[in-house]
Design a protein that fits this description.
Layout lengths: L9 E6 L2 E5 L6 E2 L4 H11 L1 H6 L2 E3 L10 H14 L7 H4 L3 H6 L16 H8 L16 E3 L1 H20 L16 E8 L2 E2 L8 E3 L4 E4 L2 E5 L2 E6 L11 H15 L4 E6 L6 H9 L3 E6 L3 H6 L1 H14 L3 E9 L9 E10 L2 E2 L2 E5 L8 H8 L4 H13 L10 H25 L10 H9 L3 E5 L4 E5 L6 H15 L1
Parallel strand pairs: 6-12, 12-13
Antiparallel strand pairs: 1-2, 3-18, 4-5, 6-10, 7-9, 8-9, 10-11, 13-17, 14-15, 15-16, 15-17, 18-19
Helix pairs in contact: 1-14, 1-16, 3-14, 7-14
Length: 479
């Protein structure tokens, strides 16, 4: 029998006299078998249905092939799996596993794929906000409520805390002996470089590029706000309103909460400080150095310099000051100074705080509390890098805000997976990228029959036991 040469095969050499060839002809195989865990996680927190509820769909139901809930689920789970671009979905729409977890194995119209392609998803992405008058006519049939999505972040945050405390069994009832809950709110701004002519683009001198300047607010690992902003504004623009909104929500559910705002010097604005002082919210915020502040710690800097020259190691002194600016502050405030010499030069740093020294002394406030603010920058890296929050190719800020929401919601989904299913395991503190690599990117063969959808996961998966543990925990949480 003559041999048949396949022109679509790929040659990878040989082993023990046998040639190694490959081709994309394996049939119904997926590289995202772990998406099953994301589906279970979604079942536990009902994320996708609640996101879809924030959209208004005015299309004719009899002519709809892809509902909003399916399209929103595609975007969120797609981001979590590592597919940020709409072009990716022109192939993913045929993936039987993604179709299965979206609850739609076959399209009503046999000419269509089970899931939406890039053109349909593009119409969702360009959906205007409710009441927006200038939205293009071709996008007017689907709109979204940004305030409802903002509220969803807070609702899931509360549910997570209730679950951790076991309070979901007791409703809103609280014990009088319950310990006062502390909330540390960490806001920060970051840049999203732009390479086109997107609406709202401006050149930012600090980042040395055209960019957006989104605002994030975290409480621990919980994402509370993802707000897209142009870079032509002050980095602290809108922060008082966001903190007020979050504080109102926290006080509604935890009336005696102890709330602290912790931020870098970019947020040191009298408007925010005064609002916190007037509303029983504490703050620990970086303060830019100036000659007056540096002169106030001159003796401490001299001591640190002498120690540094003797030991050749970083030397620090801390000092409490009472300080006010010449004209931008409305009152005097406590300032903690760090007088440091390191690497042969002075490195003075300052923070302003509403917390009394009896509660926390200067050293502890700076080293043990303020410096932990850097951890939230790792959370931003997860949302921006691991989950593609820095992909803003759409022409309008409205569409790019929705893209930011989808990446932020993908973070919330993986964060819930980590919180519910991975507590106490090797991946309990893993980043989103590590969780994706270990638990989501698993090869699987899919067989669809009349009775079931069989997903045959790779036998050699090194994280099999942890995958099974995660499945059991998520199944219990979804009941």
């Amino acid at each position: 029998m003559p041999t048949h040469c396949r022109t679509d095969s790929l040659d990878f050499g040989s082993v023990e006299g046998r040639s190694i060839v490959a081709a994309f002809d394996g049939g119904e195989i997926t590289s995202d078998g772990g998406a099953l865990l994301l589906a279970r996680t979604n079942g536990a927190i009902r994320l996708i249905d609640r996101v879809a509820a924030a959209f208004t769909d005015r299309r004719n139901p009899d002519l709809i092939e892809h509902e909003v809930v399916t399209m929103a689920g595609q975007r969120i789970i797609g981001e979590a799996l590592g597919y940020p671009d709409l072009n990716d979905h022109d192939r993913l729409r045929h993936d039987p596993l993604l179709a299965s977890i979206m609850g739609k194995l076959e399209a009503r119209d046999k000419r269509c794929a089970p899931l939406a392609g890039k053109s349909t998803l593009n119409r969702l992405e360009h959906a205007p906000e409710e009441g927006e008058a200038r939205a293009p006519h071709r996008y007017h049939k689907i709109s979204y409520d940004g305030a409802a999505i903002d509220q969803l972040f807070l609702d899931i945050f509360k549910e997570a805390l209730d679950a951790e405390a076991g309070s979901h069994r007791k409703g809103k009832a609280k014990s009088r002996k319950a310990k006062r809950r502390v909330f540390v709110l960490d806001p920060d701004a970051t840049d999203v470089p732009l390479h086109g002519h997107q609406e709202g683009r401006h050149f930012h001198g600090h980042y040395d590029c055209y960019c957006y300047l989104p605002l994030y607010i975290f409480c621990g690992r919980h994402l509370l706000t993802a707000r897209l902003r142009p870079s032509s504004i002050d980095g602290a623009s809108g922060i008082t309103q966001e903190i007020a909104r979050i504080t109102a929500f926290i006080r509604q559910h935890w009336p005696d909460a102890f709330i602290i705002v912790r931020a870098d010097s970019g947020f040191c604005r009298d408007e925010l400080l005064a609002w916190c002082e007037d509303n029983d919210v504490h703050f620990v915020i970086g303060l830019a150095k100036n000659p007056r502040l540096t002169a106030a710690i001159k003796p401490e800097l001299a001591e640190a310099e002498a120690e540094h020259k003797t030991t050749r190691r970083p030397a620090r002194r801390f000092k409490d000051l009472v300080y006010t600016t010449h004209d931008s502050w409305t009152r005097e405030r406590r300032v903690v100074a760090k007088a440091e010499w390191t690497e042969g030069e002075a490195n003075p740093r300052f923070i302003v705080t509403s917390m009394h020294e009896d509660v926390m002394d200067a050293r502890a406030l700076y080293e043990d509390f303020y410096c932990k603010r850097g951890e939230m920058e790792n959370r931003i890296k997860e949302t921006q890098t691991d989950l593609f929050g820095d992909h803003m190719p759409a022409t309008t800020m409205r569409a790019n805000q929705l893209r930011l929401y989808f990446s932020a919601l993908a973070y919330v989904l993986i964060c819930a997976l980590r919180r519910i299913a991975l507590a106490g395991t090797k991946l309990a503190r893993a980043t989103c990228a590590t969780i994706r690599l270990c638990l989501l990117k698993i090869g699987a063969h899919i067989t669809v029959s009349v009775r079931r959808v069989k997903v045959a996961l790779a036998t050699g998966c090194p994280w099999r036991e942890l995958f099974e543990t995660a499945h059991a925990r998520l199944s219990a949480a979804a009941r």
